[in-house]
Amino acid sequence: MSDELNLSLPERKPPPAERRARLVPVLLVLVLLAQGAGLFLLLKGGAGGRPATARAAGLGPEARKDLALKLEKQGLHLQAAEAWQEYLAAARPAAAEAAKIWYRVGKRYQDANQFEKALSAYYRSESHAKLENQLEAEIGRNIQTCLEELGRFAALRYELAERVGLKADTASTGEDVVAEIGARKITKAELDRLIEQQIEREMAQFAAYLPDAERRKRKEALLKQYSTASQRLLFLKQFIAAEVLYRRARESKLADKPDVRDLLKEAERAILSREVIENEVAHRIQITPGDLETYYEAHKKEYAQPERARISHILVKDEVAAGKVMERLKDGASFESLAKELSADPDTAGKGGELDGWAEKDGFMPGLGYAEGASEPLFATPAGAVADKPVKTEKGWHVVKVLKKEPQRQKAFEDVQKEVYRALRARKEREVQEQLLKGLQEQYDVVIHFSTFADNEQTLKAGDSATVP
Questions:
Q1: CA quadruple 328, 330, 333, 336: dihedral positive or negative?
Q2: Which pairs with CB-CB distance under 8 Å and at least 24 residues apart come from 172-177?
Q3: What is the DSSP letter of 463?
């Protein structure tokens, strides 16, 4: 054997034509796969997780920190929160530094009204390290604000109890067991959550028509109704009754009965239909203070207060009796004295005949309702005088005295802001629902054969879109 190594490569022979023909499509597939993988990585980098620019540039920890600070300075709260999290992943700072960064992430999310994400960030901050007193107190206040904004008042109460050093007291932190159903233990905190969930369901019927501040105010008022031990015990008993009945129904396989299955399907259909509408409304309806003022200006006439009056009355059985009352008044008798003596209305006789509320011109009048022909002569009567003619209603005959009058006036925006919100919200909801249903009917190829409803064909064609019950 030769001691020298042969480093030359053997001569390569060209592959046969048949082999080359088999390799061409394989190579094409590999090229396409490589291009597709590159496109996938490019799209992935731009759509989720870290920004595509950061991935492509391969930013180091300090560069990521600078980016986060710049985004903060520009008020780009969500982008800054993401950039700070990228910095955390790249730099892996010590616990104390990580706690401060998570605090900043929480602040950015809170500034962007992303309160659930803010809560998560604040709790992460506390789990890393205990910050100095000022920041620790600030985190506590911010957590309180987030819970209030989310309407989680029960959770807020226990959160506050823990932060003032009452963790050892099970009653204050909600760990006391208030009831047991077999192996299930219901704690005080869980009872509070159940009550809060029930209130949320009750409020869902009208809460959408209230501004956020008013909605929280209503919820707090409802929660106060359950602040007494008797009300909480009553709720607990009702919950337990429903739970044991539900368990019995499941054990008895009542859900397998055909008629019960049909009922459950109908209930599911109605619930899910409403959820679709609510999701669309929540996603597509955003009402700003500017929207409310614009709507108010466009519908000012609807928020004008009509001419109105405060009135008193003496109710008698017939026209003859009313005439006698009128005569005594002309002779100088006191209206209030005659009301106490003669009025057949026990609710007002004792207070001189005075009716609660305001009578509106051409509208509703307390005690008289919508009495035909009564508005014009009543509002032609000056304040302090008795109307020339008595008014007839289904209750009898009314001798009416005008106590006070107010002219028509335009209500200020501040006075009717809640009404404006409800009206605008209702209109936008109708628009969203009509658009949604129209799109879904097209998507699912809905065809209504109006010819099969010949008697009502024109009515059906002119009718509005179906609404979800």
A1: positive
A2: none
A3: S
Q: What is the pLDDT of residues 249-280, one digit of tens each?
A: 888 889 889 999 999 999 999 989 988 988 88
- Report how far residue 369's alpha carbon sits from residue 33's, in angstroms, rounded to the nearest whole number: 80
The residue behind tokens 């108010």 is 296
As beta bridge partners, residue 77 has none
Count CA within 13 A, CB hemisphere, residue 71. 22
List, as one string, the DSSP characters of 21-43. HHHHHHHHHHHHHHHHHHHHHHH
Q: Which of 120, 113, 125 is nearest to 78 (CA)?
A: 113
d(CA 36, CA 94): 40
Measured distance CA(33)–CA(49) in Å, rounded: 24
Provide the token pair at 240: 């337990």
Cα radius of gyration rounded to whole Å, the chain: 37
Residue 93 DSSP symbol: -
Residue where the block lists tokens 């989310």: 150
- Which residue is listed with tokens 């909600």? 174
Helix, strand, coil tally for the chain in percent (to 5): 65, 10, 25
Residue with tokens 């870290």: 50
CB atoms inside a 10 Å sphere around CB 459: 10
The model's pLDDT over 359-399, given as tens digits with 9 standing for 90+, comes to 998 888 998 888 888 888 899 999 999 999 999 998 999 99
Q: For tokens 């390290």, what's the residue?
A: 129
- Measure the CA–CA gap between 195 and 238, rounded to whole angstroms: 11
Please provide the distance, in angstroms rounded to a whole number, between the alpha carbons at the two ends of the chain: 96
Tokens 């628009």 sit on residue: 431
Task: Tell me which residue of 208, 407, 426, 415 sits closest to 303, measured CA to CA.
Answer: 415
pLDDT, residue 33, reads 43
Instruction: State pTM to two decimals.
Output: 0.47
Which amino acid appears at position 239 of this protein? F
Summarised one tens digit per residue, pLDDT across range 285-320 is: 888 889 999 999 999 999 999 999 999 999 999 999
Distance between CA 115 and CA 92 in Å, rounded? Answer: 25
Could you tell me the pLDDT band of residue 72, with boundaries at 50, 70 and 90?
Answer: confident
What residues form DSSP beta bridges with 399? 314
In the chain the domains, ranked by start, together with CATH numbers, are 55-150 (1.25.40.10), 188-284 (no CATH), 307-407 (3.10.50.40)
